[in-house]
Here is the input.
Amino acid sequence: MARNGLLIEYEYCTGCHACEVACKQEHNFSDGMVGIRVDEVETVGPDKVHLDFIPFTTRFCDLCADRTKTGDVPACVKHCQAMCMMYGPVTELVKAMESRPRSAIIAPL
Amino acid sequence: MAKSEDKVVLSAMWSAGCGSHGGCGAEIYVKDGKVIRVEGDRKHPFNQGRLCPKGLAIPQYMYHPNRVTHPLKRVGERGEGKWEQITWDEAYDTIEARLKDIREKHGAESVIFCQGTGRDIGGPITFLMYAYGSPNWVQVGLAGHACYTPRLGAMFATQGAYCVLDASQFLEKRYDSPEWTPPKYIIMWAQNPIAGCHDGFYGHWIIDCMRRGSKLIVIDPRATWLTSRAEVHLQNRPGTDGAIALGMLNVIINEELYDKEFVEKWCYGFDELKERVQEYPPEKVAEISWVPKELIIQAARLYATNKPSAIQWGEPVDAMPAGSVVAQAINHLWAITGNIDNPGGNVIARNSHGVTTYPFSSAELTYLYGEELVKKLNEKRIGADRYPMIKNFRGWVQPDVLIEQLETDKPYKVHGAWIQTSNILGGQAADPRRHYEAMKKLDFIVCVDLFQNPTTMALADIFLPAATFCEKESFRSWWQPLCVTVKAVDEVGECKSDWDINLEMAKRLATNPIKYETARDLFNDRLKDGNTDYETLAKKGGWEYPPEGHPTRPYLRHERGLLRKDGKPGFDTPTGKVELYAKRYEEWGLDPLPYYEEPAESPVATPDLYKEYPLILTTGRRSPVFFHSEHRMIPWLRELDPDPVVEINPQTAKDLDVVNGEWVYIENHRGRVKHRVKVTATAHPRVATTPHGWWLPETEGKAPNLFSTWDYNINNLTTMGNQGKSGFGGTDYRSSLCRITKIRD
Here is the structure.
């Protein structure tokens, strides 16, 4: 069976936290527990300050098995306000990655 | 988890709960009569399946153990926190008796009707207020009425219409619409769209445009995610945006980069504007604003020479000294470059189908309630006699005048308040202590809300529990598409929708009979203007765009005679043109041309004070997980933003001997609050930025603590009474002075 994962175009991740709350709602996770977390990365360049956000799955991520078995995408992917997350077989995500600068693939399972 | 929902209801969000101004389409999943989750509706053109954290946290909001779900009456002193559950009948009987008594003895104007931010509440609250007979609709404590109204007023005066950045939101096929094109450059002016859907604009549409090629020019005192990706960042001194706009106009006019054909054909007063902007050469503006003149020139050239380009602006514009003047200057940028109602420019925004949900302008009020009533109301409306722009443009009270009147009882005493989903003391009010003292004196106060908050706890005599959007019916026409909110489940406990509460109350209080049996009758009456009705819209999935050729649909309506009542080409202004020299401002006793005004408190205006308070304080930094003062009690959201945080630069932190994460005092001559420090290079070394609306629902609600609002609400450092000449703007929400000190006790 193909191994699935998430392609994150972090060039466009705005740090809006929708993925985290979508995950909480989907799994009804209690405080502190969540399947995805967004990290803030601040870097100071010669001419400007850069701010980037990078979502990363935790050990509680099951890629929304209940949703994906019915053909839907994980809750985080659906609700990502910047539409910068993609779900699918890792082999296909790698192909998609070719044309997407500043991106990462996460395969939590 | 099993996904065995019983039904999925499609509905529009624009209400307490999700909070913000957006009109997202929701899929509400219902099982056993309860909402089990809320998702975005992919078919809805507004959000296209996406949803923000606030929308996604709705189940936790709805079923929160602290939600007030029954009518309450106060049984102790105000602020004592002693409540008794009562029936709706008892609540209504009490309110009816008290409000009728006040009206009889003191006149209907002595009851003020108070709302917070611009959600669907504007419809029901005006309906009740006019039924009762009061002219006093107000956002209490909102200094300078600094929330969109100054910008709307400036746009109305300039081109007789409101404009917003064209992100294809007026077309149902959105980005695939053949007639749409993305803006080549977007000027993001004093707004962080990532954190919400300000003024009905879905923030992430900006990202959608970026993906389709739009480049960014950002004007913001802090560095942000957007400035990282911007071609030009004007990191300005807070409060100087008016100077920047005038400097950019100077460059565009003097270098002849403006759209000569558009100006010649459609603008009035260009020569006067040209003369005025000579006072603002880029060198001078650079000195005022801290922005190097090269960047001001670069921004002006890029914007003017790349058509179409568009400007998206935020609430800080309203809060500037003379907010309606700053807004006018920014408006002139899109006017002289011909970026009006063109694809990818600043498109004219009108209520979908011409339907009114929320009648905020005098024109809409007149349409719904008649000229006679509006004229009569203006005689007693607080602030209308002092400010012609307020009298003639919008049906609201001027909040800085209100607080004076509450204290002096002149020209008449205010006796009662109906406060509906508005956390005055913990949220919008500048100088909340002053409002607390003044409002405590009122004879009778009703609060309609979903949770206890500093305002309800301090002031309510009767608390009526309101419903979230999942539990009610409503409708929305701000701006597109026309939407309906569909009730998915029965109300939690005994909660009721704002529309139902106000209609039921209006029937008891009205001096003329109310012609509507149900709220649905009212919706359908208003939806007639769009040739549709509630049932039709709900059946279609909850939304609809106006048909081809409809005047509420773009583009270039000034060429097609779709903007003026007489059907002639042109704009709906006295001259029929875009008025760079605003006849309406002139008529209202204001300078018809834009100018720059220094903030009331600043290194320039008050150098002595600046020695004592050497940081510029700018408040109201938005959080993506909260809307104003809402949501602090929602665990899924609070976990992501647990404390009020002041952002300062590493150099500033070093000078102050404070470290990341440390709790500090922020103080000035008006007050002192605690915040946690975030040390970040995104902050300017001379500026401290803070969020607004902080109170701690987990702490003691009773007075004097009132959920710690006095300890954390940054508005304790702000003041009333700086309003601009128009009555709009001139607040210190965005630019005042402070110092930060270590907590040593």
Observations:
- Chain B touches chain A through 41 residues (CB under 8 Å).
